[in-house]
Amino acid sequence: MGFREWVSDKLVTVDAIYGLILYAALIAAVSDEESHPVEVLLVSVLSLVIFWGAHVYAGTIVNHVGKTPLHSAIWKAMRHSSGMLWAAILPSVPLVLGAFHLIADDDAVDYALLIVTVQLGVLGYIALKNRGTGMAARIFGAIGCALFGSLIIALNAAVH
């Protein structure tokens, strides 16, 4: 499997996009004027892993039907939900850099949220490309995906 196929298989999925929006909302909700990137990173990652665990649990219940062994159901649910975790890697990089004081604390959170916005746009572009959509529609669709994802993140952060 090449890189493009891996990206489509792991990141252009409902689980990955949901995980990415959830992770960004967690980052936005946890960060404030006094928070350090380490705190934001730890709380956000741990919360995402908890949500991922709930997702795996739900997937295991759904997959454990008939004569499917429990371990097979768990493994299938983990593979299916893995995009939630993969999608959080890039936005975590600025938080790690901020933790080591390589970039300013406020910038670390801003860059993480910017990366999420770009990532949502790229994933939207790839999804539309996979559908065979023309270039103009892909570009406008990518912008729409990024903006709508940012709106969801902002609404979630405002509620929390």
Q: How many strands in all?
A: 0
Q: Which term fits the overall shape?
A: globular
Order of H and E elements: HHHHHHHH
The whole-number mean of residue pLDDT values reads 90
**Amount of helix:** over 70%
| Secondary structure tally, helices | 8
Main sheet attributes: strand count, strand direction, barrel closure: none
Poorly predicted tracts of residues: none
Give me the Rg, rounded. Answer: 17 Å
Beta-strand content estimate: under 5%
Terminal Cα separation, in Å? Answer: 40 Å
Secondary structural class: mainly alpha
When the domains are counted, the total is 1
Write out key terms for the chains shown:
single chain, 0% strand, 160 residues
Describe the structure in your own words.
Helices cover 81% and strands 0% of the residues. It is built from 8 helices and no strands. The chain has helices spanning 3-10, 14-30, 37-63, 70-81, 83-86, 89-99, 105-130, 135-159. It is mainly alpha-helical. It is globular, with a radius of gyration of 17 Å. The protein has one domain. The mean pLDDT is 90.
